[in-house]
Write a sequence for this structure.
């Protein structure tokens, strides 16, 4: 009669032993910030998505949803913008509309606290904040967050040095660092487009053209129209 | 084994007869179309989104199939008294539980293989380079499913209501994924009674984060040794832990007057 209960107790002991061992090796892989460190986007519906991601063990998928929301936020022109007063802090899209995107850092932090190994978000947000919106402090903040969780991912250090050179107005050094950053295949198109715009303003149309061709060939639909327009413009400028 | 196999086969046939498998495939095709559209919104991260959301889709549909099967098949058979036909053939009750369990696992394997094939096809069409982590992730999903199936069978016999069984099992699924958060709370609690109680809860609950490889391994950067440790030791943990619930389910069934 008691045999089966002894059997169950033996199984319980064995499962606890296995759990002890697995608990020892899991922290090397499970490097997620705990639930108290999550950043609220200020929207209840988004918070529910984040919570569902944590509860169902789907943090990467929740971060992916957050990424789509970040792109939608940054891609949607803001109705009320004060660009007339802070022209440098205003980012204009191709259609002539844009905004200040004050919550961009919050959106990016929300994603990386859910999934700290989403490298692309750090670089994208740093590019947008550092150059398009001229909020270099916030750009450095997101990159420092990236280094905290991914100390071996050295692209962040390169990006930080480029932003620091921008702060110090040492543009030649900044361009040198950015040229290194864009050589990597995982470099976001936003940084490539920033460097291309810098080349354009310096009159280096050949370099600018090759970067826009690279962006067009990446197959990113969001840059397609802009890349085509810029390529034809650069070709015209090179002819003249 | 010859007594378990027919019950396993019967469970798989029952899944096909009740259209559970057909619905799984149909629903997954519709959902994959939605995932495909959603991933396009990810712009440069399209492949990543397709990969991650595809994994979630496969996991969630397999989970629902398993929860449905474990919550309804046993209870229906007990209520309709067809379970008599099995027991009068001198089949021990734990053989019956094991047969049902393996049947549910086989159904889950079929649905994971079918859905993962569709998932992989979509990824390859989008230009994704095959990575062995795809197989690791799907295998670890099956380990999670095998634990939750055992829990589901236990609750089906414990509660006698498919709805309650479904809810309890799903609750365990959530708690299993919160294990790391429970560990964090344990590390912060000062009160020894509370600490002891939560530690007990932690050891009673399954820890699904061990098998959550889609979240814990970074593509192209993972350590194969870690994954094999998880597969071997995690596999053993899965066998021990599932066996506890299956044994308890067999005890419950033997106490029942059917």
């Amino acid at each position: 009669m008691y045999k089966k209960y002894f059997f169950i107790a033996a199984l319980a002991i064995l499962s606890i032993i296995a759990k002890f061992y697995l608990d020892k090796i899991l922290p090397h892989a499970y490097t997620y910030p705990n639930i108290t460190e999550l950043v609220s986007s200020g929207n209840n519906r988004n918070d529910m998505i984040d919570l569902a991601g944590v509860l169902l063990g789907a943090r990467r998928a929740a971060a992916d949803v957050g990424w789509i929301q970040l792109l939608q936020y940054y891609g949607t022109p803001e109705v009320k913008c004060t660009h007339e007063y802070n022209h440098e802090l205003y980012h204009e899209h191709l259609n002539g509309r844009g905004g200040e995107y004050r919550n961009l850092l919050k959106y990016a932090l929300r994603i990386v606290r859910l999934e700290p190994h989403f490298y692309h978000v750090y670089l994208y947000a740093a590019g947008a904040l550092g150059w398009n919106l001229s909020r270099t402090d916030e750009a450095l903040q997101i990159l420092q967050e990236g280094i905290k969780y991914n100390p071996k991912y050295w692209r962040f250090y390169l990006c930080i040095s480029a932003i620091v050179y921008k702060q110090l107005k040492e543009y030649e050094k900044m361009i040198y660092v950015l040229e290194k950053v864009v050589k990597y295949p995982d470099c976001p198109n936003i940084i490539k487009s920033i460097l291309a715009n810098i080349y354009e303003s310096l009159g280096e149309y050949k370099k600018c053209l090759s970067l826009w061709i690279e962006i067009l060939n990446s197959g990113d639909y969001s840059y397609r129209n802009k890349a085509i327009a810029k390529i034809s413009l650069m070709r015209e400028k090179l002819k003249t | 084994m010859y007594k378990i196999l027919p019950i396993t086969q019967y469970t798989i046939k029952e899944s096909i007869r009740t259209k559970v498998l057909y619905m799984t495939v149909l629903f997954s095709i519709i959902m994959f179309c939605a995932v495909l559209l959603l991933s396009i919104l990810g712009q440069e991260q399209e492949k990543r989104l397709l990969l991650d959301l595809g994994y979630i889709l496969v996991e969630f549909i397999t989970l629902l199939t398993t929860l449905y099967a474990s919550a309804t098949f046993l209870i229906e058979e007990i209520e309709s008294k067809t379970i008599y036909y099995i027991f009068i053939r001198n089949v021990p009750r734990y053989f019956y539980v094991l047969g049902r369990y393996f049947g549910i696992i086989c159904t889950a394997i079929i649905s994971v293989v079918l859905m993962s094939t569709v998932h992989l096809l979509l990824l390859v069409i989008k230009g994704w380079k095959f990575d062995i982590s795809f197989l690791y992730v799907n295998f670890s999903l099956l380990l999670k499913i095998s634990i939750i199936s055992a829990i589901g069978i236990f609750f089906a016999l414990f509660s006698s209501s498919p709805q309650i069984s479904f809810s309890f099992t799903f609750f365990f699924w959530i708690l299993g994924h919160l294990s790391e958060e429970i560990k964090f709370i344990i590390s912060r609690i000062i009160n020894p009674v509370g600490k002891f109680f939560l530690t007990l809860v932690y050891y009673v609950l399954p820890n699904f984060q061990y098998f959550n490889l889609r979240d814990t391994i970074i593509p192209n950067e993972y350590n194969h040794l870690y994954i094999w440790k998880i597969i071997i030791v995690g596999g053993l943990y899965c066998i021990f832990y599932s066996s506890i619930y299956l044994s308890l389910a067999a005890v419950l069934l033997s106490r029942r007057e059917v």
Chain A touches chain B through 44 residues (CB under 8 Å). The mean pLDDT of chain A is 85.
